[in-house]
Design brief:
With 457 residues, this protein is an alpha/beta fold. It has two domains: 181 residues, Aspartate Aminotransferase, domain 1; 254 residues, Type I PLP-dependent aspartate aminotransferase-like (Major domain) (Aspartate Aminotransferase, domain 2, 3-Layer(aba) Sandwich). The strands form four sheets. Strands 4-12-11-10-9-5-8 form a seven-stranded mixed sheet, sandwiched between helices. A four-stranded mixed sheet has the order 1-2-3-15. Helix 4 packs antiparallel against helix 12 and helix 8 packs parallel to helix 9. The longest helix has 25 residues. It is globular, with a radius of gyration of 22 Å. The protein binds pyridoxal-5'-phosphate.
Length: 457
């Protein structure tokens, strides 16, 4: 639908205006926080919804978030992915309280680092050794450096629709107007030196055989090909064959192969997508869930490559650092969360898969029945509502045409008591019991019905 027409329908729509009124009336403290924040904060990282102000959260428990005005929501934000066990799980809370009594930052390493490294090694098929850092961004940055040092080559291959964090190399994106099979590079945002796209990156088409040809052509310069086993722009679990072939081509070409498991690690399965797809990359990056909700990143991989971090085995030494890397509070939270996940893996992972699939299939059946041009794409508990009528093979098929309708949907959803983050990738957790998932499905239905009543979809 035409964007101007959608805006007009929203302005005139009874349901659209009613939900705005209701939300504005019950979120006056959020409005105050926004007003104060605007005076000094240049950016708030992510908006929740497009009211005149976002919603600010005060506390979290299990599958719930409570905002500063005391409104309760079912949380589908999942802390942007880490909260596999839900918000504030008792097992992590207790462990953190114990560590806080002992001190939370020493700089000099503490024993918990070794324990969490052992857990990642046990879970990750490719992991012989581990280093810790503070975010997924740092993890992919350090992994790229290790790959360059190890191979002596400079270029990094990344895929159309990918997300690997916010350092300069990760901000190379595909120009969405370029040839799908031979995509050219662009940047997300200004300020990234053009040389990174021109001389140091290779952009590859996702789930497209041509990627293998490009890797073969560039093998003399390619140090590393990195891929999310589940793209956040396009969550799906049918990429297994492509990933296995990609690994083979990388091996054949002497190019290192990295699975970016920052979202999928300890979420899709205890062993991440390495376990789900039975695949062993050269390197894997971790973040989010492995820190139990505290800031973390980790790189794991084959011993000879990981030796670049320690100068063992004559590997070229690379420099890494980080005041808070491996800090005891994060390590403690990570150990508590991942130990619980390990001990309950037979219950947690099938449950997350089943509930994620149920949510997608019930919402999608409703959309089909009522000819609503939207559907949920999901990889187990990771999901994204996409507004489009057509087939989706890659993120290229997700257009901006329905952006305004999509925003409107999230506003209605909030009105029905369910919160999804501004970036719209959403997560279920182990704390979302079947009745919470039922409530989410009902809120989706009601939100679609509201929009249909106003003629928007
Ligand atoms: C696959 C992937 N890699 C890296 C990152 C960056 O992680 P962080 O936000 O912790 O820097 C993200 C964040 O969403 C991610 O999804």
């Amino acid at each position: 639908m035409d964007k101007e027409q959608t805006k007009k329908l929203i302005l005139e729509g009874e349901k659209s205006q009613a939900v705005r009124k209701k939300l504005v009336e019950r979120t006056s403290k959020s409005a105050e926080v926004r007003f104060h924040g605007e005076q000094t904060l240049a950016q708030e990282i992510v908006g929740t919804v497009h009211l005149p102000h976002p919603i600010y959260i005060d506390s979290a428990e299990g599958p719930h978030l409570t905002d500063v005005d005391g409104n309760d929501y079912i949380d589908l934000t999942g802390g942007f992915g880490p909260m596999v066990l839900g918000n504030k799980p008792a097992v992590v809370e207790e462990a953190l309280l114990g560590q806080i009594k002992k001190g939370w930052h020493f700089g000099i390493p503490s024993a918990p680092q070794q324990l969490l490294a052992d857990i990642i090694k046990e879970a990750g098929a490719c992991v012989d050794h581990v280093i810790f850092c503070n975010s997924g961004t740092e993890a992919t940055m350090f992994a790229i450096r290790a790959a360059r040092a190890f191979t002596g080559k400079q270029k990094v291959g990344l895929f159309d629709g990918s997300y690997h964090g916010v350092h300069d190399y990760a901000l190379v994106k595909v120009d969405a107007t370029s040839d799908r099979s031979r995509p050219t590079a662009n940047f997300l945002g200004a300020g990234v030196p053009p040389v990174i796209a021109e001389d140091l990156s290779v952009t590859l088409p996702y789930r497209d055989e041509m990627a293998f040809e490009i890797i073969r052509e560039q093998k003399g310069e390619l140090a590393l090909v990195m891929i999310e086993p589940v793209q956040s722009s396009n969550p799906r679990l049918d990429a297994g064959e492509f990933l296995h072939r990609l690994k083979e081509v990388c091996e054949e070409c002497g190019v290192l192969f990295l699975l970016d498991e920052v979202i999928t690690g300890f979420r899709i399965d205890y062993g991440g997508c390495q376990a789900h797809y039975d695949i062993k990359p050269d390197l894997a990056t971790y973040g989010k869930a492995v820190g139990g909700g505290l800031p973390i990143g980790a790189v794991g991989g084959r011993e000879d490559i990981m030796n670049t971090f320690s100068e063992k085995g004559n590997a070229p030494y690379i420099f890494t650092g980080g005041t808070f890397s491996g800090n005891p509070l994060t390590m403690t939270a990570g150990i508590a969360a991942t130990t619980y996940m390990r001990d309950h893996q037979d219950e947690i992972y099938p449950y997350l898969m089943e509930q994620g699939n149920r949510l997608a299939s019930e919402v999608n059946s409703f959309c089909e029945l009522h000819q609503i041009p939207a559907r949920i794409m999901n990889a187990g508990s990771i999901f994204h509502l996409v507004f489009t009528g057509g087939e989706i093979n890659s993120s290229r098929d997700i257009t901006e045409d329905w952006k305004i309708a999509e925003r409107e949907f999230y506003l209605h959803l909030l009105g029905h008591g369910v919160i999804i983050p501004g970036i719209h990738l959403a997560f279920l957790s182990h704390a979302h019991k079947p009745e919470h998932v039922d409530a989410v499905i009902e809120a989706f239905r009601k939100s679609f019905e509201d929009m249909r009543a106003d003629g928007i979809i």
